[in-house]
TrEMBL record:
May play a role in innate immunity by inhibiting the antiviral RIG-I signaling pathway. In this pathway, functions as a negative regulator of RIGI, the cytoplasmic sensor of viral nucleic acids. Prevents the interaction of RIGI with MAVS/IPS1, an important step in signal propagation. May also regulate the SLC18A3 and SLC5A7 cholinergic transporters. Residues 3-175 form the PRELI/MSF1 domain. This is SEC14-like protein 1. SMART domains: CRAL_TRIO_N, SEC14. GO terms for cellular component: cytosol; Golgi apparatus. PROSITE patterns: CRAL_TRIO, GOLD, PRELI_MSF1. The gene is SEC14L1. InterPro entries: CRAL-TRIO_dom, CRAL-TRIO_dom_sf, CRAL/TRIO_N_dom, CRAL/TRIO_N_dom_sf, GOLD_dom, GOLD_dom_sf, PRELI/MSF1_dom, SEC14/CRAL-TRIO_domain. GO terms for biological process: innate immune response; negative regulation of RIG-I signaling pathway.
Length: 716
């Protein structure tokens, strides 16, 4: 596996020429890098006007490796070839290095670049990238990889210190300014030599960018200053090392590299809203900076946020009055580390009453809004306290907790909330203080702890009785002035006191089921029920050919088959007959059938896309470019599991599927839009933001050989 490294942009607040003077003092050897034993100049070129200076060195390194490994390898020193290409006219230095020793077994490439800061010509930027590919090494591949990464990260940390050391040395010698390169005056007698010089310089200017291109840098790096811009919040900017330290915290070089590479991948592939840097970092921390694992869970979370409109929850959703009156939780100042503090009086909260009055989905949405508010408060506190704050502290008071809180549907709702929060808000909980835990608490803890991540569990501090008032208690984490009054503190806490929810506010299971589905469809989505023998169909009338029909739907329950048909004549509107086949109403959504039973496929209407089977929990986005005007019918049909021909006994999958789809009913949430073909990409950016696998509908359709469609399927 190839190991890669990409540094952030490091800014020196010194002119480029002074940085170059300091850099040259590292050669032929540098006492600040013990492993750098020495170097010899192998090749050197200097243009006659002095603008181009290319020098190639053979560097000798004493790698800190076990003596046994050196003996097996048969070497005491490792040699690298380093090529420095300085363009004083454009004020750039490109450094390329590769290993000479064991080059047939290990491939190491490094590229560094010094350029002028784009917004301040008296500052200098530095960037660095590298790759390590170990093909084979006498069976010690893993050991060599660890040694190489350890040595490399150690040298990266020293890089800036070394430059600053030599800058200080220059200052002590009275050198605080180095003049910029200026072209020499040209005399008539020297025109010929000058012309040949320009040709040589031009040839070098071509060679250097080609080498840089191998490392993925722009080929015009030498023709114009290409220093990365300082971060100002736009997603195309590169990350500045000072910005990382100020807003994201102290990261190791490899952690910085992981953040930059994952962020760059998102910029190149993700067409939706790019997460903020601190949120990307949370996913990396949750997976111990394993880029592949972090990318997987983050893409799933981005899909989930888009499906459920989570980005707009604080602006578009108002909590029901029942929650405002009886949900005993709220934000309360901050802890000693500057983290926002959330107080939850769980023992005083009627969880059963809230679930009966609101349903599981409303509670989940409220918790999501709390988490979104927590992210916003972390950003504010980062600015206020002048240091990175990426998580919050939660104080949970369990006084009053009893067996009523262990009501099964309430625990089920709690477990689902924990699951959703763990998946989509990793590393946001800095500390959880559980106070006044009663005897029933171990029962609750046994139920919920298996669903909590190990890293999160380590942040829990549990106090029984009044233990929180003693040494190692609340005062270690929260200032005395803001301890809530209900904990014998001096600060008035405006968190609702909770209490029993009046039974008059309870709703029936049918009402709650309808409300749960409606919660996520308040903006642009509609809901529908699909029954066995009664598909749900919608009509789309197309006036101009080459229009684009787009769709975005979630399969909330059961498995369905999605079809698209075309008809030259308009279907008859469904009759308002609740018992008839054309109109079936249900608590979870409507059901409409448009295709008359006397219609024949191929005569009265035709299929324009191959059927697409969609499983429960999947989210599907796609499009169809219409070939003809007329009437298009989008159909969601109940999917029956095929019987097993080899045996009269049902398969396990068939049994499980029949249990999941009770009463032969499925549910879908859908949104459709018709737009002009030329506007498709721009208008449907939001539908293309999912990072799931692509599933291309079959091209062999009955009547749309010139149409094209695409669908994305993500599993929720």
């Amino acid at each position: 596996m190839v190991q890669k490294y990409q540094s952030p942009v490091r800014v020196y607040k010194y002119p480029f020429e002074l940085i170059m003077a300091a850099y040259e003092r590292r050669f032929p050897t540098c006492p600040l890098i013990p492993m750098f034993v020495g170097s010899d100049t192998v090749n050197e070129f200097k243009s006659e006007d002095g603008a181009i200076h290319v020098i190639e060195r053979r560097c000798k390194l004493d790698v800190d490796a076990p003596r046994l490994l050196k003996k097996i390898a048969g070497v005491d020193f490792v040699y690298f070839v380093q090529k420095n290409s300085l363009n004083s006219r454009e004020r750039t230095l490109h450094i390329e290095a590769h290993n000479e020793t064991f080059s047939n077994r290990v491939i190491i490439n490094e590229h560094c670049c010094y350029t002028v800061h784009p917004e301040n010509e008296d500052w200098t930027c530095f960037e660095q990238s590298a790759s390590l590919d170990i093909k084979s090494f006498f069976g010690f591949e893993s050991t060599v990889e660890k040694i190489a990464m350890k040595q490399y990260t150690s040298n990266i940390k020293k890089g800036k210190e070394i430059i600053e050391y030599y800058l200080h040395q220059l200052e002590e010698e009275g050198i605080t300014f180095v003049p910029r390169w200026t072209p020499p005056s040209i005399t008539p007698s020297s025109e010929t030599s000058s012309s040949s010089c320009k040709k040589q310089a031009a040839s070098m200017a071509v060679v250097i960018p080609d080498a840089a291109l191998k490392e993925g840098l722009s080929g015009d790096a030498l023709s114009s200053p290409s220093a990365p811009e300082p971060v100002v919040g736009t997603p195309d900017d590169k990350l500045d090392a000072d910005y990382i330290k100020r807003y994201l915290g102290d990261l190791t070089p490899l952690q910085e590299s992981c953040l930059i590479r994952l962020r760059q991948w998102l910029q190149e592939t993700h067409k939706g809203k790019i997460p903020k840097d601190e949120h990307i970092l949370r996913f990396l921390r949750a997976r111990d900076f394993n880029i592949d694992k972090a990318r997987e869970i983050m893409c799933q979370s981005l899909t989930w946020r888009k499906q459920h409109q989570v980005d707009y929850i604080l602006d578009t959703w108002t909590p029901p009055q029942v929650l405002q009156d009886y949900y005993a939780g709220g934000w309360h100042h901050h802890d000693k580390d500057g983290r926002p503090l959330y107080v939850l009086r769980l023992g005083q909260m009627d969880t059963k009453g809230l679930v009966r009055a609101l349903g599981e989905e409303a509670l989940l949405r409220y918790v999501l809004s709390i988490n979104e508010e927590g992210l916003r408060r972390c950003e504010e506190n980062t600015k206020v306290f002048g240091r990175p704050i990426s998580s919050w502290t939660c104080l949970v008071d369990l006084e009053g907790l009893n067996m009523r809180h262990l009501w099964r549907p309430g625990v089920k709702a709690l477990l689902r909330i924990i699951e959703v929060v763990e998946a989509n808000y990793p590393e946001t909980l800095g500390r959880l203080l559980i106070l006044r835990a009663p005897r029933v608490f171990p029962v609750l803890w046994t139920l919920v702890s298996p669903f909590i991540d190990d890293n999160t569990r380590r942040k829990f501090l549990i106090y029984a009785g009044n233990d929180y008032q003693g040494p190692g208690g609340l005062l270690d984490y929260i200032d005395k002035e803001i301890i809530p009054d209900f904990l014998s503190g001096e600060c008035m806490c405006e968190v609702p006191e909770g209490g029993l929810v009046p039974k008059s506010l309870y709703r029936t299971a049918e009402e709650l089921e309808n409300e749960d589905l409606k919660l996520w469809t308040e903006t642009i989505y509609q809901s529908a029920s699909v029954f066995k023998g009664a598909p749900h169909e919608i009509l789309v009338q197309i006036v101009d050919a080459s229009s684009v029909i787009t769709w975005d739907f979630d399969v909330c329950k059961g498995d369905i088959v999605f079809n698209i048909y075309h008809s030259k004549r308009s279907p008859q509107p469904p009759k308002k007959d609740s018992l008839g086949a054309h109109s079936i109403t249900s608590p979870g959504g409507n059901n409409v059938q448009l295709i008359d039973k006397v219609w024949q496929l191929g005569r009265d209407y035709s299929m324009v896309e191959s059927p697409l089977i969609c499983k429960e929990g999947e989210s599907v986005q796609g499009s169809h470019v219409t070939r003809w005007p007329g009437f298009y019918i989008l159909q969601w049909k109940f999917h029956s599991m095929p019987a097993c021909a080899a045996s009269s006994l049902p398969r396990v999958d068939d049994v499980l599927a029949s249990l999941q789809v009770s009463s032969h009913k499925c549910k879908v949430m859908y949104y459709t839009e018709v737009i002009g073909s030329e506007d498709f990409r721009g208008s449907m950016t939001s539908l293309e933001s999912s990072h799931s696998g692509f599933s291309q509908l079959s091209a062999a359709t009955t009547s749309s050989s010139q149409s094209h469609s695409s669908s994305m399927i993500s599993r929720g």
